[in-house]
Specification:
- The chain has 19 helices and 5 strands.
- The protein is an alpha/beta fold and 404 residues long.
- Helix 9 links the parallel strand 3 and strand 4.
- Helix 2 packs antiparallel against helix 5, helix 15 crosses helix 19 and helix 16 packs across helix 17.
- The protein is globular and about 70 Å long.
Length: 404
């Protein structure tokens, strides 16, 4: 994985490369960013940059030729370095790109199945395949890939012991021994076993923790690491990839990029469900909640619960987006509303009549919570039933009498 393979994040890439070039590399880093922004890929590209033989001055033109077979590749390599990237063709880069470099180790949530005391090394083949197929995937995708069903992922005490053992060994090829831990939020108190290792690391050891939620990290680990914040992707960056790689129309790309809110994973999912009639589905829900009563609510909830989790999530994101557009319309006027159709503009007008900004923000918060729980296998009927009740109580004092 090279920096050039990652969408956006130009400033972060530049900063990370300069840390290495100017010898300001901390021994423990936390890459913190929401899902779908490429935090894990950035960590993988950074690890490859650290072990790259060209970056470390160990790569000769002769060895360039042994891999490329022509002088053009040497020129491309030098240009890549000028752009703060690994060369991509040295021995170390070839191995790192296959996630098989002997000095780059991985840790991630695992499940019982292969063994009662699972370690990341037990799932290394699945891990390599997962990254290739779902480079912007989240932990839910990973557990589904492992066919975890209702099993919970965990980074176990046995995993921590295995990390201690791996990093106590000498490096094989690189100057550095690197550990990339994805989702350290899944570390329990057993993570405290790593504290001494982080405080007093073996020579030339590098810890890279890739996290999404700072509040769920062990404070003892958080306080010992340098924080690198990975921002959400820009709409324009996602739109460009949708146009180039997914061949969607410009109008569709712009709307999906706006809906995705900087999350490329969600943008890809939205392509699959873009033609769904979310507007009518939302109108039916609002009418049943605010006007037609319990029987209509039960019918709507039964129908929604039959859909897959991805469709349920995309519907909630659509409602979330419409609420955000309603707030924009209230503040900026109708010219401030973007990427919605005329029939959706009418809905945003009604939403503004039905609820204040505070009420709309309260609904957005509940929709975000519901999306979170859907990803964690919440019972759909119970979730949408509870959400319907909350929606009613949030806006009951300002309800429209007419149908939506």
């Amino acid at each position: 994985m090279q920096f050039k393979d990652i969408i956006g994040q130009k400033e972060v890439k530049h900063h990370l490369a300069e840390m290495v070039q100017h010898n300001r590399l901390s021994h423990a880093l936390i890459f913190l960013g929401k899902e779908g922004n490429g935090s894990l890929l950035t960590a993988l590209a950074f690890a490859q940059y650290v072990v790259c033989e060209k970056v470390n001055g160990k790569f000769t033109a002769q060895s360039d030729l042994s891999f490329s077979g022509n002088e053009v590749a040497i020129t491309d390599t030098l240009e890549a370095l000028q752009e703060y990237d690994s060369c991509g063709i040295c021995n170390a880069c070839v191995k790192a790109a296959k996630y098989a470099h002997p000095d780059v180790h991985f840790s991630y949530p695992t499940i019982t199945g292969k063994t009662d005391k699972p370690k990341s090394t037990d799932f290394i083949q699945e891990w390599r395949e997962f990254i290739q197929l779902h480079p912007y995937g989240n932990v839910y995708d990973w557990l589904q890939f492992l066919e975890a069903e209702n099993k919970q992922g965990n980074i176990s005490v046995e995993e921590c012991s295995d990390i201690l053992h791996m990093l106590s060994l000498k490096s094989f090829e690189s100057e550095f021994k690197i550990l990339i831990m994805w989702m350290p939020e899944y570390l329990g108190k057993e993570g405290n076993k790593l504290l001494k290792l982080i405080e007093e690391p073996p020579p030339n050891s590098l810890f890279i923790f890739v996290a999404e939620n700072e509040e769920l990290l062990l404070p003892t680990i958080l306080s010992r690491c340098q924080l690198i914040k990975i921002p959400a992707l820009q709409d324009a960056e996602i739109e460009q990839v949708l146009l180039g790689e997914h061949k969607v129309t410009p109008a569709k790309a712009a709307q999906i990029a706006s809906f995705s809110e900087g999350n490329y994973r969600e943008a890809v999912k939205l392509i699959q469900h873009f033609d769904e009639n979310w507007l009518n589905l939302l109108k039916e829900w609002l009418n049943s909640t605010l006007k037609t009563g319990p029987a209509a609510q039960v019918k709507w909830i039964d129908e929604m619960s039959k859909h897959g989790r991805e469709k349920q999530k995309q519907f909630l994101r659509y409602f979330n987006h419409m609420l955000q557009q309603s707030i924009r319309m209230r503040i900026l006027g109708e010219n401030g509303v973007s990427f919605i159709e005329e029939k959706e503009v009418e809905l945003t007008r009604r939403l503004n009549k039905a609820a204040s900004i505070a009420q709309q923000n309260a609904i957005i918060e509940e929709l975000d919570k519901a999306t979170y729980y859907i990803e964690r296998n919440a019972n759909a009927k119970m979730l949408f039933h509870a959400l319907t009740i909350k929606l009613y109580h949030i806006i009951r004092d300002n309800t429209l009498i007419t149908a939506w």
